[in-house]
Amino acid sequence: MSLDFYYWPTPNGWKVAILLEELGLPYKTIPINIGKGDQFTPEFLAISPNNRMPAIIDHDVAAEVPGEPISVFESGAIMIYLAEKTGRFMPADPLGRKETLEWLFWQTGNQGPMAGQLSHFVNYAQGEHTYSHERYAGEYDRCLGVLERRLGDREFILGPDYSIADMICWPWVLIAKPLGASLDAFPNVSRWRQTIKARPAVQRGVDLGKEFRRAAPPTDEERKVLFGQTSKSVGEQAG
Ligand SMILES: N[C@@H](CCC(=O)N[C@@H](CS)C(=O)NCC(=O)O)C(=O)O
């Protein structure tokens, strides 16, 4: 398999980095510097129309299915694509597949956006935003509660087997503390977080591109790129 991985070291990028490392697939990392605006180039938008990373291009498809290489955007879609293509980290039976999809949709529709907005108010928003901050802190906490109940009688999200459902939910739990949340009230989540953290492939995934990680608050230039995006501003940059 020959894969290009469009990536920047953030929790959403780690999800796919972890899966690629777990699968042991060779891949070429293409950094998408989201503070510089790489996500708005016409080339990247052709792969990822929502101007967000992660995304992948699978060059092997041409060999199997005649035609162009296949691009995939949205972390959940990428993970299903790779799990189904390799037959790993996802149950093949219809009910197991259904449960995997439930947790992938839950992550990308609930935990991810709520944690992402919480991160915005913890790390980036300037000035006082008590209502918004509390709203997202509450939602992040609620999502931790959802995982806590799910993991009450299961080692992993789907049961005894580690899967893409764990890989997609884990990165936003990894950074609970920097988001201002304690895991003290969530013993099952804490246990699960530690078990997954101890996996060498997970460590390699989280370390991918760590030299690009932000050491300081964003500059004014980066703020302009990242925040206040509209259809017009993205359209203008996309050319
Ligand atoms: N729902 C998307 C979320 C991806 C996402 O939000 N990526 C962020 C980095 S964590 C990004 O690319 N941001 C670029 C921007 O805000 O312009 C997924 O799960 O893939």
Describe what is shown at a glance:
The protein has helices spanning 11-23, 42-47, 61-64, 75-86, 94-124, 130-150, 164-174, 187-197, 200-207, 220-226, 231-238; strands at 3-7, 27-31, 55-58, 70-73.
What secondary-structure arrangement, pairings included, does this model have?
Blueprint: E1 3-7, H1 11-23, E2 27-31, H2 42-47, E3 55-58, H3 61-64, E4 70-73, H4 75-86, H5 94-124, H6 130-150, H7 164-174, H8 187-197, H9 200-207, H10 220-226, H11 231-238
The protein binds glutathione.
Glutathione binds next to α5.
> On the 0-100 scale, what is the average pLDDT?
95
Helix/strand order, N-terminal first: EHEHEHEHHHHHHHH
Relative helix content: 55-70%
CATH topology term of the largest domain: Glutathione S-transferase Yfyf (Class Pi), Chain A, domain 2
The tally of domains stands at 2
Poorly predicted parts: none
Structural class: alpha+beta
Q: Specify the oligomeric state.
A: single chain
What is the CA-CA span between the terminal residues?
A: 33 Å
The first-level CATH class name of the largest domain:
Mainly Alpha
Task: Please explain how this structure is put together.
With 239 residues, the chain is an alpha+beta fold. It has 2 domains: 86 residues, Glutaredoxin, CATH 3.40.30.10; 104 residues, Glutathione S-transferase Yfyf (Class Pi), Chain A, domain 2 (Up-down Bundle), CATH 1.20.1050. It is 55% helix and 8% strand. The protein is built from 11 helices and 4 strands. Strands 2-1-3-4 form a 4-stranded mixed β-sheet, with helices on one face. Helix 1 links the parallel strand 1 and strand 2. Helix 5 packs parallel to helix 7. The model has no long low-confidence stretch (mean pLDDT 95). The structure holds glutathione.
